[in-house]
Amino acid sequence: MAARHICVIRSAAVAAIATTLAATAPGALAADKKYDPGATDTEIKIGQTIPHSGPGSLYGVLGRVGEAYFQQLNESGGINGRKIKFLTMDDSYSAPKAVEATRRLVEQDEVLALYGSLGTAPQTAVHKYLNSKGVPQLLLNTGASKWNDPKNNKWTMAGLPLYPTEAQILAKYVLSVKPNAKVAILYQNDDFGRDFLAPFKKVLAEAGGKASVIAEQSYDLTEPTVDSQLINLSKSGADVFYNITTGKATSQSIRKVVELGWKPLQLLSAGSTGRSILDAAGLDNAKGIVSIAYGKDIGAPRYAKDPDVMAFEALRAKYLPNIAADNSIAFFGYGQAVSMAEILRRCGDELTRENVLKQAIGLNGFRAPQMLQGVSYSYTATDYAPMKTLFTQQFDGKDWVLSDKPVTE
Predict the structure, then answer these.
(1) Cα(30)–Cα(13) distance, rounded to whole angstroms?
(2) Cα–Cα 20 to 30 A to 329, which of 63, 67, 80, 311?
(3) Ramachandran angles phi, psi of 138, nearest 5°
(4) Where in the chain do CATH 3.40.50.2300 domains reside?
(5) At 266, which helix (H) or strand (E)?
(6) How far, in Å, CA of 353 to CA of 340, rounded?
């Protein structure tokens, strides 16, 4: 009887050990992992669409920097042991091409999420599609107000300050320095351009003073120049020029204002303040321009020893030596890539689209490398405004001079 009792005990012990081993076996650990399309034990696939060609090709550097950053990351082991496969597709700043490229990323390449895609019009074209598919559309390089709609379109989040926020702050600035301002506006003839107009005018109207918009001109991206629009605006008698343009149109308009001998106070949308754009316009021609700031001006000497700038410079020198060291657009692309990596890192082994979205919202308080001290992401589950604290800045011909204090929406 005693021997039989010992045998039973031993059998029970062996069974317990077997159960424990089974629970800790690789297959059981894998069961704790959660994956959606685009994620495996060894890889995470993410994508974006931006203009590598066409009128917005200046911004193609965003994709090249993303490729370099994720290559660097993979060479050091990836994220939580997984390599990042990053696919940056050319949409030529065209809505139909953005649709084609986005569908390929989702349906053929099966990416886990998209980040850093550019342009209000191209991203509007895929907005409903991505939300219907439940695919995260994160850190968009557009600040259109429509992206702040977590109730109806929870999968889409902007990565830039919202345009209405920017426009309202600039309008208040105008009122503070020119209470009787006569404003002329050049704007891109799409959702991007129009998103600035109403909020800017509303602030002027509500001030109850004499400041007003007296002239407006729009342009299409396909137009070779904006010279005729600038000639018309310069004849309006306006003493403030609000320049809501992108890429080459920004450089052309800054130069043309000087050529015409027009000397208004110039306001420039924040997305067009990059060094490459100002260099093309001529730094002397850009002197006096006022804009909103939330990121570091990488070309300014005061940031030469900034740890984030130095990290970017090391990346650029190794992987992208043909990109200028003071390319602000490239630096902002680096900051967004770092932010996307942070989202994926926080996901751990739960690489589902729902968790990717959750971790993106959780960036609240995270300061990306390109951001100024005092600026950080401000996302919440009910408010997708990316940043609510901004500075104003004025270009002195060499550097951007920041306001003493930030302004919070």
Answers:
(1) 26
(2) 80
(3) -105, 160
(4) 43-161+302-388, 164-293
(5) strand 265-268
(6) 13
Helix orientation angle between 307-319 and 328-347, rounded to the nearest 10 degrees: 100
CA distances from 92 to 54, 60, 152, 322 (A): 5, 9, 28, 21
Give the whole-angstrom CA distance, residue 298 versus residue 308: 10
- End-to-end, the C-alpha distance of the chain in Å comes to 82
Closest CA to 329 of 359, 290, 370: 370
Q: Is the pTM of this model over 0.90?
A: no
CA–CA gap between residue 66 and residue 12 (Å, rounded): 56
b/e for 318-327, b at 16 or more Cβ within 10 A?
eebeebebbb
Following CA atoms 399, 404, 405, 409 in sequence, which dihedral angle do they give, to the nearest 10 degrees? -50
With contact defined as beta carbons under 8 Å apart, do 47 and 107 qualify? no
Helix (H, G, I), strand (E, B) or coil at 219: strand
pLDDT of residue 31: 53
Q: What is the pLDDT of residue 407?
A: 80
Q: Is 103:129 a contact under the CB 8 Å cutoff?
A: yes
What does 64-130 look like in DSSP terms, one character per residue?
HHHHHHHHHHHHTT-BTTBEEEEEEEE-TT-HHHHHHHHHIIIIIS--SEEE--B-HHHHHHHHHHH
For β-strands 156-158 and 290-293, DSSP reports them as unpaired
298 close to 329: Cβ distance less than 8 angstroms: no
d(CA 291, CA 289) in angstroms, rounded, equals 7
CATH number corresponding to 43-161+302-388? 3.40.50.2300
Rounded mean pLDDT for each run of 10 residues along the chain, 409 residues in total: 42 42 40 91 98 92 98 98 98 97 98 96 96 98 94 97 92 94 96 90 90 96 95 97 95 97 96 89 97 90 94 98 94 98 98 98 98 94 93 93 84
What pLDDT does residue 300 have?
85
Q: Which of 82, 91, 141, 90 is nearest to 112 (CA)?
A: 82
Distance CA 83, CA 104 (A): 21
- 3-class SS of residue 407: strand
The CATH number assigned to the domain with range 164-293 reads 3.40.50.2300
